[in-house]
Amino acid sequence: PRRGGGAARGRGRMGDHHADDMRDKFAETCTDATRAFISDATRVIVKVGTAVVTRGYDGKLALGRIGALCEQIEILRRAGKQVILVSSGAVGVGMQRLKHQQVLRSSVQDLAQMGTQGMSASISGRAAAGVGQSGLMSVFDTLFGQLDITTSQILVTDNDFANKDFRERLNDTVSELCEMGVVPIFNENDAITTRRAPNSDSTGIFWDNDSLAALLALDLNADLMVILSDVDGLYTGDPSDPSSELLRTYSPNLHDAAIEFKGKSRVGRGGMAAKVDAAWAAARSGTPVVIASGKKHDTLSRVVLKGEPIGTLFDTRAAKALFVRVTSMKSLAGMTENGGGGEARVMAEAARAASRALQALSSERRAALLRRVADALLARETEILEENALDLQDAIQNGVDDHLLNRLQIKPGKLQQLASGIRSIADSDEPLDRLLARTELAEGLVLEQRTSSLGVLMIIFESRPDALPQIAALALRSGNGLLLKGGKEAMRSNKAMHRAVMSALAPDVDPAVIGLVTSRDTITELLALDDVIDLVIPRGSNALVSHISSNTMIPVLGHADGVCHVYVDAHADLDRAAAIAADAKLDYPAACNAMETLLLHESLLADGRGAELIRRLKEAGVEPGAGPHAVASDAARQLGLEPMVAQSLHHEYGDNRCTVEIVSGVEEAIAHVHQHGSGHSELVITEDEAVAERWLNGVDAACVFHNASTRFADGYRFGLGAEVGISTSRIHARGPVGVEGLLTTRWLVRGEGHVVNKDTDITYTHRKLSIADADGTAAN
Predict the structure, then answer these.
(1) Residue 699 in contact with residue 679, Cβ under 8 Å?
(2) Residue 358 DSSP symbol
(3) What's the pLDDT at 1?
(4) Measured between alpha carbons, how far apart are the two ends of the chain, in Å?
(5) Do the bridges between strand 259-261 and strand 8-10 make them parallel or antiparallel, or are there none, so unpaired?
(6) What are residue 54's DSSP bridge partners?
(7) Are 403 and 464 in contact (CB under 8 A)?
């Protein structure tokens, strides 16, 4: 949603305008009535808006609603909940008081000349906040006091949250207050804010009390956040329009394109857009949120204690389930925007059927397929390079970054390397139906564990057309069906590569075994097919991986970024360090296994080796910048470095730049890697074997190196022939994912009429058997 506040206004009703019965079924999926998990919440943040605590007709405090809110919070406390209140309204209360004071101090003539609007314009928001905060808090303190509840006022500004120590102390203080039964009441201290336009400032940590509540939900480990507004929740249109529907569960992928927000709140800085942004931010951080009406006296207890489906729920799990249900139903009903209906399902099911035929081929025939693919790539080299040149031309005209251009370009000799890798895969041992273990369960009853294909894979990759034939070869060798979606900037190259692969498949296997997806709409539909597609592997940016993970029920395997470190130890050989570090950065700066941070042992500063190493790296073409510790400790000056351009130590440059930091030894280097790295590839350069072993055994990453460039982290260089990607996950595969990473196992049981019969007539032996004695049933 776009920022702007106010109620949601639909561009027509949500969904496609098809038959009434289909629309009704679609609407049914937009209701998630199962919110039982909400009642388990212990720490609850309640954010109440200005429109709830003030009266609409005169802007004065709505004492009845505030009293009902206090009673509801008292009910929650008696139920064992810890409640933290974030209240707006101080500016409105202060404005009313200052207006009244102006009236008392002004003559009749002054009042006539000034008018009501002029009176308001002469009062600053900061002054109103300063007066209103004490008034609002006094009302809360009085009403809560009638219920024997002690309150605590906590005023904060966005600048406070830039201080890590402040955030930790705040957490401790709030926890102590909650344990004592006190209700902390938060408000942004608008009286002393340093921002000129708080409602449009993009530099602060938060910019209204909705965002403040979301930030507190994260910092204070809240289990639930409830935003009380002047409407029942988020609607598909103007809440006053009878055709508008209340969204029971919010999914950004379903609803962002169908709603927009008009004017901001009647009296507050935010509005519905601000509430939606804050709610989804909190939900993505792990705190479910409900936006509901604060004008109803029992909303809070119904939401928190009973888990009733009122208001709009913001929860990543519920949103994902809703997205999958709706997309699946629309696909089956032929309701997709491009009119394709179930084309995505047809493509996926065709890949599955073809993969089963592929698995039935002998090892020799599948290997022959791969050799034909390698030959086809070389035979069509001219066509592929011409199409790639056109993609590059378009990318340059569109202003694509240099590091993305490097990934997009198919360089001379690349196709020969690809063909060599594919032939290596063909020559590898047969991966399917390989016998891994045999166990005698009982006399005559034998259990076998054998490798098998995963099924249908969906690979999404950005700007890397050379990835297509590698992934296709791995899928063919492992007997998997494959759906491929490359970046739009490589459309021509991908199609040319796909044509080459397809030309090699007939007559042994249906070309549908490897489908090329060209539409983003189709990707949305495919992500809903968790009954057909078995694994999704996104290769690309953090944004891509996060989007895919948040919008499918299919298991996801992949890495989001490659923030790789090179640690040069005190006992490093300078010549070796200069050569390895330069290679790790410059061999392919845009690769995910390229060096992004160079860690130097502090002793290298004292003896001048650090400065010499930096000089050599600069001479080779590396563009180093000093990290914050290097700047603060004067190391940057000694090394002749300017401060780094990145805003974070967790940064992937993708070009010749890197960050340089200083550490006291291997332990601090390992800690730095764990804090700022991405778990991809990490390298130590040292001649001290003890330091090397500590690094190799202590660094938690997919690939860990000693005195060898991180650029070796590659499926081809690891002898896997190729890779579908480098996984930083710990489940199912880690590091370069070759054929082995695309397999699972299954269990075969061979018996002679055995039955369980409550285990009364069987004697279990559970004896391990030799694989070599499998009488020829073991695969090679």
Answers:
(1) no
(2) H
(3) 27
(4) 57
(5) antiparallel
(6) 61
(7) no
Q: Which two tokens stand for residue 176?
A: 């102590």
* Residue tagged 């809903």 (tokens): 528
Token pair for residue 731? 């489940």
Residue 648: how many other CB atoms lie within 10 Å: 9
Token pair of 2 as six digits = 């776009």
Locate 734 and state its tokens.
């880690």
Cβ(539)–Cβ(728) under 8 Å? no
Using the structure block, give the residue that is written with the tokens 């029971």: 248
CA-atom Rg of the chain in angstroms = 32
What pLDDT is stored for residue 189 in this prediction?
A: 82
DSSP 664: S
Strand duo 535-539 + 623-626: pairing: unpaired
d(CA 260, CA 9): 5
Over residues 153-175, the pLDDT tens digits come to: 999 887 888 788 888 899 999 99
Q: Tell me the CA distances in angstroms from 383 to 390, 397, 500, 646, one per residue in order.
A: 11, 22, 10, 40
DSSP-derived secondary structure for 688-704: -HHHHHHHHHH--SSEE
Rounded-to-integer distance, Cα 736 and Cα 745, Å? 20
pLDDT at 545 over 90: no
Q: With contact defined as beta carbons under 8 Å apart, do 732 and 741 qualify?
A: yes
User: Residue 607: exposed, middle, or buried by beta-carbon count in 10 A (0-12, 13-18, 19+)?
Assistant: exposed
Burial class (CB within 10 angstroms; exposed 0-12, middle 13-18, buried 19+) of 180: exposed
Q: What is the DSSP letter of 155?
A: E
Cis peptide before 507 (omega within 30 of 0): yes
Average pLDDT, the chain: 83
Closest by alpha carbon to 211, among 284, 171, 270, 255?
A: 270
Between CA 688 and CA 580 the distance in angstroms is 17
DSSP class per residue in 383-413: HHHHHHHHHHHHHHHTT--HHHHHHH---TT
Closest CA to 58 of 294, 270, 295, 266: 266
429: DSSP letter = P
Tokens 């207006």 appear where?
A: 99
Neighbours of 303 (CB within 10 A): 27
Q: Structure pTM?
A: 0.57
- Of 414, 405, 351, the C-alpha closest to 377 is 414
**pLDDT digit string, tens, across residues 710-729:** 999 988 889 887 788 788 87
Please check the confidence at residue 687 and state whether its pLDDT lies above 50.
yes
Residue 683 has pLDDT above 70, yes or no: yes
Q: Say yes or no to pLDDT of 105 above 70.
A: no
Separation between Cα atoms, residue 390 and residue 381, nearest integer Å: 14
For residues 174 and 177, what is the distance between their CA atoms, to the nearest angstrom? 5
Strand partners, 156: 188
Closest by CA to 568, choosing from 622, 611, 629, is: 611
Residues paired with 515 in a beta bridge: 483
CA diameter of the chain: 110
Higher pLDDT, 50 or 475: 475
Torsion 371-373-374-379 (CA) sign: positive
C-alpha span between 599 and 662 (Å, rounded)? 6
Tokens, residue 444: 């005559």
